[in-house]
């Protein structure tokens, strides 16, 4: 097969790939950005020979520049309007696997919103340096009105003269067809020669001749048409101001080729007008560089600086799974929806989502600033949550608790997941308050609070059923109110913490409780879940703990027994923030056979917990050769360093918990890390015989092979996950859920062991030079959480995947008082039932005021959504992730709809009120 014989056009596109922070802290890159845009604007002012510039697909560049140069707004606006500066469609260029589906949707939404303040966003699916791409990207692009994806990683270019398997992740050409799991297709443009293949074009004829001979040959090897793409720019690359002169030189040297200063829309139009789809390679699903040697995938950024991933997951969950749905309900009740705060919180969070940021592969200063941004976004989000839940609780009818007298403390438990929920809940209540404005001395106030009688109380639900619970007296506490109409109001109070099992709280709903004084009822006596200090059991699961802290899990429903769970593995790591490298011939250390200190931590009616402590002697670091190899820039797979003979104690504290109504076993591990250059993983052998497994990704649960491709030579086959990884066969399965632990591996050990990376410690950035990162050693204390969920072999229909998603989302609780209200004590505004659909989000549209709900089909088959709403509404409609175009949905009765959902479809339903 040969490229087209038509007269060739060399499309030279000016751009810069702008990592906001990476090998320099943000502000140092920021200064260089201001200098770049200043020079660019001056060049555009000088005439029209320099035709256009692509601002890297991210509108945050405009924000960053105008923060320092607000006086240049009109100049920017002029060239954006004229089409000489192309902006958007994203707010930032995010990592694909380490950011949630909803974060990617908000990224596209905000990028479009910001672009439209100046003009129109470029409809370019731009992923120049993303570390692999998720399978749902084609559908997300199509729903954004984008029919293409430009990317540099994930597919191996082979050249059209090579033999290619179109069923693999290779492409004969730079152009290919990329299909998502739902069938959505986009034109893929692979930067086969990277996004800098037209960088620094010479003006001098002799230099230009050598340059273009090489560059034209490189591009022609992969181009399927006569339209040749040259990217004039690279990472933080200044504008090539003499490009018009360089193009004139090229025209003189090659009169048979049309050299044009082009842009992406013109290039796409030319390619689409000439290409033959039948000749192009097709790839489907995830692009993870599956058909490479495995040494350059950058996959181990998933475990670099795990603390960042945990903070990110907390921030994402709080915004999309708590604040947005709670604020939506509060808006229905009359409270204003804080669009402006959401935009600010999302933008602040997303500033941590570029690949060099969230991947943890920058210098230490960058990641210190990230922690501050995570905190800033979370503080705004917590305020939205607190205000919204208070408005909701104030609307709940708690008057039914009035019959228990005046000494009643009602509260509301809210479940913001998409499934009904039962589980252990804790709430801190103010049993009594005395405001300082009431005139009591601090001594008198403190005495009254300390003398408060907390005896004779029971916990009841909305029907008056007495529930088993535990109470912890938190004693005298200081607090304050910040009223909307008066000065701050400080008070002293007596606080208690109640913990109990809340049952069957409806999806996106709530249930009411009260702590009351009632002498005629005693707390329920419920059998313990413990059998001695080593065995826990509920109606579905049994856990048996061994002397070394590992345990056996018996799934009483499927009859499957899982052995040797919870062993820890430790290996050296002489790699870097990008990639893991185990020292050659090193044998992994494990806690198997290492005697642990085991004791009962909790024995209540609703939960049993066992504490397991290890003092584990491991090497203190790599040996001195690693420092020499790092300084010499030895490529990490070629390093010979080993682990030090000096040792330190790695302290592990594991808490294994089983709830009375629990579907899984909770594991919380605290690591006191004193070692460097190493990795810690938790091992969960499944003994399930299968060649594939499933994993949670963005709006999808893809199937992945356990055995890598023949080209894969890296001994490690670690991969990305979001909420969980699952190993199943037709009869049984084990889902391992995690919170912010994005790296796993299914070991080829004969047992299909699921290995979850808990901590990875390295001392350098890696890549193109020596950038020491001592803080990436992650010394100190780290706590991680997981849940093991056994099931019958089908994670969807068994509810195991739903349980794993719920594991991500905390309960929301709110103390209130006795009052009338418009919301019933047990309430949800929505009802639906479908085991194939995963609920993703509930929010308000800023322009229309409409309510938007989103689900995605976890299965590869069609399914039906039957949905009912008790919220007064005019009509339902189906829309895209941009919430723009709408397709009315007919309903036979008010508040009800039935909708067919395609395989792996992401569906957004609007409710207009």
UniProtKB/TrEMBL annotation:
Residue ranges annotated for the Glycoside hydrolase family 38 central domain, each copy included:
301-374
* Pfam families (UniProt xref): Alpha-mann_mid, Glyco_hydro38C2, Glyco_hydro_38, Glyco_hydro_38C, Glyco_hydro_38N
- Specify the superkingdom: Bacteria
UniProt keyword annotations, A-Z:
Glycosidase, Hydrolase, Metal-binding
Q: Which family does it belong to?
A: Belongs to the glycosyl hydrolase 38 family.
Spell out the protein name for this chain: Alpha-mannosidase
The organism is Paenibacillus macquariensis
